Amino acid sequence: MDGRDDIVAVGLLSARDLERLGSGFTRAYPVEVARSFGDILAKLEAIDWPAGDKD
């Protein structure tokens, strides 16, 4: 593996944050508006993330 597809960070950003990052930030996955942080965490936990190496 060349490391190009390794996840290096997960963050919650606003549309304005993405604009500030510019074209260098190439992948963003929008989530539905959540009423609470708990809703967001539940959605993240429900994602079927690809298996990776555990360090």
Could you characterize the architecture of this molecule?
- With 55 residues, this protein is mainly α.
- The protein has 2 helices and no strands.
- The chain has helices at residues 15-21, 37-46.
- The radius of gyration is 14 Å and the shape is flat.
Secondary-structure element series:
HH
pLDDT averaged residue by residue: 78
Number of E strands: 0
User: How far apart are the termini?
Assistant: 15 Å
Backbone CA Rg: 14 Å
The gross shape turns out to be flat
* Total of DSSP H or I helical runs spanning 4+ residues: 2
Provide a brief overview of the structure.
The chain is built from two helices and no strands.
Annotation keywords:
55 residues, mainly alpha
List the SSEs and their pairings.
Layout: H1 15-21, H2 37-46
